Amino acid sequence: MTRQRLDRESFVPMYYQLQQALIQDMDAGMHRPGDRLPSESELCDSYGVSRTVVRQALRELEISGRIVRRKGQGSFVALPKTSELLVQSLTGLHEDVTSRGGTMRSDVRRLERVPATPEVAAELGIAPGDPVIVLDRLRFVNEVPWVTVVTYLPYALCPRLLEEDLTQQSLYALLEDGYGVEISWGRRRVEAVPAPAAVARALEIRRGSPILLLSSTSYAPDGRPVEYFVASHRGDLSRFEVRLERRKGAPYNPLLTLQSADT
Where is the HTH gntR-type domain (predicted)? Predict the structure, then answer.
């Protein structure tokens, strides 16, 4: 279908006009998440512009995260990213997704009692070898594999957790409502890393694709560690929003502490 040609008399660059026209089409539902956009030549004919203009517009859309370009296949409307709010609220991914009207389920790949490694023991404030519960989940948002999460909890805190079905429910809600474990605050570290082979297979991405690796320790109101997890998020689907505050006269600190959780 031939579209209205762009305004060549405008001071607004042609590529930006095309970029905005495509965004309007996506927002209006003409191109839905996962849909393939018209080819470069089709866009040239539809909007009466050069291939250089089309390529620049597509490049800007890719940079902004609105489309995904696949070599030999074309350009596709990107899936909407799930935002997790860091610092402002202490919620889990299950609560974040369902509050936005999405669906969340987990493939529980491991749930058992194991001795704590030195790393896990240090995070949970227990002795190496003390019993902990390890919970390994592949989590799906709207049936798309989104994140792998390996969670460790002191066994004495909630031994009956080994009998729970955690495919659909929030771990945090279960801990609070079922076991009286209140999580007050958390410390999180975030870094961008290439996806290892096992994580890439689980998330259905290429090995070495960028992922966001999160490690977090959560604490009870009395300061006692109650949970430690390591999560690998797909970099193309996840976005984290952070509230920053400037304190006059505060010394520069290159380490940003993020208080939140992801369970």
Answer: 12-80
**Angle, to 10 degrees, between the axis of helix 51-63 and the axis of helix 14-27?**
60
- How far apart are alpha carbons 178 and 108 in whole angstroms? 19
Cβ atoms within 10 Å, residue 199: 21
Residue pLDDT, tens place only, 63-99: 777 888 888 899 999 876 654 544 444 445 555 565 5
Q: What is the extent of the structural domain holding 70?
A: 14-77
Write out the two tokens for 95: 């609560």
Tell me how many domains the chain contains.
Answer: 2
- Angstrom distance (rounded) from CA 57 to CA 35: 17
Q: With contact defined as beta carbons under 8 Å apart, do 140 and 106 qualify?
A: yes
Q: Round to whole Å and give the CA distance between 10 and 7.
A: 6
Tens digits of residue pLDDT in 246-257: 555 555 444 443
